[in-house]
Design brief:
The chain is an all-beta fold. Helix content is about 0%, strand content about 55%. The strands form 2 sheets. It has a 5-stranded antiparallel sheet with strand order 2-1-10-9-8, with no helix packed on it. A 5-stranded antiparallel sheet has the order 3-4-5-6-7, with no helix packed on it.
Amino acid sequence: ELAKYGHVTMVLEGTRTDNVAFKDSTSFKYTSLDLFSNQVFTDDQIDYSFSFVRHLSTPDDAYQDSKIEFGIKINNLGEEDQSVSDKTVSLDSYTVVGDDNKYFIMDSFFDPILEPEKVTVAFTDLAFDPETNHLTFSYSIDVAKDFFNNPTGNPLTITGNVDVIVLEHV
């Protein structure tokens, strides 16, 4: 039941604070039972706001709350002048374990409005079907080494794909 609303893949690539390169990938498959964490809003069927969370494991397990969260506002969806005016991504309690059994934890909020020179967030191949509420896109986040939410202390790249069903309140 908790996996039926789609998933988000993620690849983290960079260098740890001890100068060891890493590449980590995963898939966040589970939707929270809190349906406010999986929504689409629209007033005019042209401008859409999406807010959704996907968890790495069962979201009700207090000890396993690794999750990725997106906040997106799309203006003129499906039109030639379509644009994304709001784009935030949060990665919470995600542990990266290296082959050498050393780890670090990502608890990071990425919003290019806060520090545009230190973090960029891009969404490509964005598609939304308002009949089925099926949302798909690719994303990439480039993080500067001195961004306050970057635990690696080095440049960090995060990429992935989103393939989710979001719910609309009636």
